[in-house]
Write a structure and sequence with these properties.
This protein is an alpha+beta fold and 226 residues long. The protein is built from four helices and eight strands. Helix 1 packs antiparallel against helix 2 and helix 2 packs antiparallel against helix 3. It is elongated, with a radius of gyration of 21 Å. About 5% of the residues have low confidence.
Length: 226
Amino acid sequence: MHKAEQLRWAVDVTDDDVTAIEAFFAAQLPDRTVDELPPDSQEYRTHHALRVAVNQHISSLRHHMNGPGAESAYKAWQWDLSRAHEISSRWCDLVDLTREWLGVEGVDVERWVHRMAYDTLPDDGTEPAEEVALPVAVPVGAPEAETDAYVSEYSIPRQQCDSAYAVVRDPGLTVRWALFEDGSRERHWDGACWQPTGSASSPYHFSRPAALAIARQHAAADADAE
């Protein structure tokens, strides 16, 4: 089980949420006999593939929510962020599947929504020195307190080279952000390691606070390694 002091990052998904969504899918995708769905039929393949996908996501959710903790204190922050990202990703995938059953009895439209990782430590509103926020056009008369809403990119200086981590907002979905290794955006952080950008998956995995915190953790780790 996880040690409470390790879990800085959280996702608003509970064991009861997982149990409820698992029960719903079990009712919608019951085990089918050979007489009902011949194994070589398209209906069987679709039905079986959905059952496998749902079961894998449920298993992964339970593992990351209740599995073993970080293998060492040195890796704790990276493990914690990766764990929270996996919970968010798996849960959002399950929620997307339930949308095919909207209007069906049993769908919890209040709880079964996208949940993103959030930092449980209070944010004092300050940002480390030398970080640069690159805003898009701010409407005339916008309150100063709301200017963060118009920021499209942050630049977090790296200690070991003359470059900076780039925290960038998804132009199509403003609540999601990506962390790129530098301004070229050739590699992005997927929650566990740096991946080439342009692969099948989107690089925009995180909330704004999460992406900034990950970038700052990387910058701090760079400084410690010097």
